[in-house]
Write a structure and sequence with these properties.
This protein is an alpha/beta fold and 288 residues long. The protein folds into 2 domains: 4-210, Rossmann fold (3-Layer(aba) Sandwich), CATH 3.40.50.300; 215-272, Alpha-Beta Plaits (2-Layer Sandwich). The protein has 11 helices and 13 strands. It has helices spanning 44-51, 71-74, 92-103, 112-115, 127-139, 157-172, 184-187, 207-211, 224-233, 252-261, 275-286; strands at 4-15, 18-29, 33-37, 59-64, 77-80, 145-149, 176-180, 192-197, 200-205, 215-220, 239-241, 244-248, 267-272. Strands 5-6-7-3-8-9 form a 6-stranded mixed beta sheet, with helices on both faces. A 4-stranded antiparallel beta sheet has the order 11-12-10-13. Strand 8 and strand 9 form a beta hairpin. Helix 5 packs parallel to helix 6. The structure holds adenosine-5'-triphosphate. The site of adenosine-5'-triphosphate has 11 residues, from strand 2 and helix 1.
Length: 288
């Protein structure tokens, strides 16, 4: 079994009377990429900030490299926050130099695509390049753990694929990676997924295990607009995927009855839910 790099037991964080993270247990081992998924506000960043030692838990324990997440242990991990944590009014080279000096490691070499930007102010770079720089900075000291908070948000598909190559390389050399994402095609690149909803961990495992036997009814209908409105009016939570209407985890009879009452002729097909649809049903069930 691989060495456990970080973990939480009953990790809870309250802000006043609001519980942002509620009794969460997670583990990340060396060499694995663990995806942390959940809607906006599910508690992912708050959990990450506790793991990083930037936020004290209100209850429960956080372990990083077999101890508390103190400064010494934090120096062994690389972190790319949502806002990247770079100095936007310094050049790429200055950012690299500053970070290398802070960690006492040699200055990293810029990948080919970034080399021409060494003297560009970080704030003047396109977002995709800024994210690449943030990765170079976070990886300069060959961290044993990597924590990435929406590392590819807002970048094009090619840059995303490159960043994922880097993430996989880091896991292959033995780092444990915890990464949050809103992109489901990225979730598929993870070895394991953790799903949060309303502060709680509501599912874990690979995509197949998380979807389990959750089914969706696909509604095939010439007038999809009317069908959508009728189901909405009947209080049935509908997903519109392009022009296809999908209703996860529902009773087909309720659906049929809502459509018939509205005089809509539709063909109903029972299909396996997608991971997004499973997330929605779990989030609904966890709703406080
Ligand atoms: N310092 C704070 N004070 C009060 N509430 C907070 C604070 N930080 C976070 N929250 C609340 O805790 C909840 C969880 O926030 P968090 O940022 O952890 O969610 P998230 O899953 O990371 O969302 P996103 O995907 O949008 O980043 C939200 O309702 C947020 O408003």
């Amino acid at each position: 079994m691989s060495e456990r790099i970080l973990g939480t037991r009953g990790a809870t964080r309250r802000f006043g009377s609001f519980t942002a993270v509620d009794s969460v247990d997670i583990d990340v081992s060396a060499g694995e990429v663990v995806g942390l998924l959940g809607a906006n506000g599910a508690g992912k960043t708050t959990l990450i900030r506790m793991v990083l030692g930037l936020l004290a838990p209100s209850a429960g324990d956080v372990t990083l490299f077999d101890g508390p997440p103190d400064l010494q242990r934090r120096a062994r991990l690389g972190y790319v926050p949502q806002n990247l944590g770079l100095y936007r009014d310094m050049t790429v080279a200055e950012n690299l130099q500053f970070s290398a000096e802070s960690y006492g490691v040699p200055e990293p070499t810029l990948p080919a695509g970034l080399a021409t930007h060494a003297n560009t102010l970080v704030g003047d770079l396109p977002l995709g390049s800024q994210r690449q720089v943030a990765f170079v900075v976070a990886l300069a000291h060959a961290p044993e753990a990597l924590i990435l908070d929406e590392p590819t948000s807002g970048v094009d598909a090619l840059s995303r694929a490159r960043l994922w190559d880097t993430i996989r390389e880091q896991a292959d050399r033995g780092a444990g990676v915890l990464v949050t994402t809103h992109y489901m095609e990225e979730a598929q690149q993870c070895d394991r997924l953790l799903l949060m909803a309303d502060g709680r961990l509501v599912a874990s495992g690979d995509e197949d295990a998380i979807i389990g036997d959750t089914h969706t009814i696909a509604v095939h209908c010439a007038d999809w607009g009317r069908a959508f409105a009728a189901l909405n009016d009947a209080g049935i939570p509908v997903i519109l995927s392009g022009r296809a209407i999908r209703v996860p985890d529902t009773d087909e009879r309720d659906l049929r009855s809502a459509l018939t009452s509205a005089g809509i002729d539709a063909e109903l097909e029972d299909v396996r839910a997608t991971i997004e649809e499973r997330m929605l049903t779990l989030a609904r069930a966890a709703g406080r």
